[in-house]
Amino acid sequence: MVGILAFAGIVAALTQTLVVPLIAQLPTLFDTSASNASWVITATLLAAAVSTPVAGRLGDMYGKRRMLLVSLVPLVLGSVVCALSSSVVPMITGRGLQGLGMGVVPLGISLLRDVVPAKKLGPSIAIMSASMGVGGALGLPFAAAIAENTSWRVLFWVVAVLAIAVGALILALVPADRPATTTTTTSFDLPGAIGLGAALIALLLAVSKGADWGWGSATTLTLFAAVLVLLPAWGWWELRLRDPLVDLRVTARPQVLMTNTASILVGFAMYAQSLVVPQLLQLPEATGYGLGQSMLAMGLWMAPAGLMMMAMSPVGAKLSAAKGPKVTLAVGSLLIAAGYGLSVPLIGSGSPWSLLIVTLVCNSGVGFAYGAMPALIMSAVPQSETASANSFNALMRSIGTSFAAAVIGVVLARMTTDFGGFPLASENGFRVAMLIGCGVGLAAAVVAALIPVRTTKAPLQPTETSGSTTPETAPATKA
Fold first, then answer.
1. What pLDDT, on the 0 to 100 scale, is given for residue 129?
2. pLDDT tens-digit profile of 252-272?
3. 15: buried, middle or exposed (CB in 10 Å: 19+, 13-18, 0-12)?
4. Left, alpha or beta for 130 (phi > 0: left; psi -120 to 50: alpha)?
5. 407: Cβ–Cβ under 8 A, 6 or more apart, which residues?
6. Nearest to residue 129, comparing CAs of 38, 231, 8?
7. I need a surface site. Which of 179, 322, 417, 445 has the fewest CB within 10 A?
8. Cβ–Cβ contacts within 10 Å for residue 219, how many?
9. What pLDDT, in 10s, does the model give residues 382-396?
């Protein structure tokens, strides 16, 4: 079951890096501008941000396994639409549909609490959490190899087939969980979903497109103003409801609130090196700091970092079992900061091997942190809100990555050097970007160390009854 759910997470993560090797070719492929082509990336980000908390809440209401299967449907449809696209609008539509399937990972993590024995829950959560890094890392060389040797459409056909295979495996081998609530006592908070979706779209559009539109432009400022209006209004609405989309009272608990804050910082720190290292690997050697690698070679140099996340996840689980997930999160954040600090003297005088070591250290920390955060969340929320709380935590990580893209993008765009008449990010620009990543990693470690873990509820022990898996109440224990 754990292997199947981790495979589902890898396939979902694969879609996020699938188009990276195609970014430069998209304007030519679809006869459009670079600005229009960038929506191929943005559409997935926006759809994922809106759908993830919705999928989590529906998982709590109707069953996590059922919503896992539902989430795979737009993933398959989106892949098929992209594979058949001949213009940019259908391509953007398909990528948006793929983004609707990003709730797979938090749903899978939450399902583990219902179907995995308590003694195996920690390592299982760590492995499932690491699947995002594995899928993202393997996506680069996989996509580059296919794009260089065959049609780009094959990329999307492969993902469609993999998503169908995942669905078949879940149907055959993963037992159904019992919904924590029933539709007779709970209704879905549609106004809350619309309000949160609108606020997230405004925020992520402003952050991801602000550099293109101008940070002081009317469009960007209007979007930020909309966020300041929509989020308080959404919070007021959620606090009035008996069954909200996101229970803000639970989210405001210190353990949950500070874990989500750390998640934003870890998401930022994780993504910053994913933006810097590929550029350093691919820039021409004539710059004095670039390493002149091809797209395929860059992907191959980056792939071991994702595998390192999976390899370190059992180690992180053992540390959590011995010292608690709070310690694991703090140690992981410190490892991320150490990786960034290690990179600073290597920029300009390093080699692909030195950058490989940097990514291995950083992603070891990410593996620790990503396994610890769901454990902290699930030990602080009721069983009836496991999927919703995990999905909200995943959303916080996504917001962190979005801010990383914006901040690092601004740094590299402002600190440039002339290379043959073209502006390129300078050596100092890359150093500053890595120092920012180091600082954010240290901040995440501080927040993790301050998380007030008071008590924790033991995970529910699944029992087999008439061929189905049902949760059994476990007593609360002191942390």
1. 83
2. 999 999 999 999 999 999 888
3. buried
4. alpha
5. 268, 272, 436
6. 8
7. 322
8. 14
9. 877 888 888 899 889
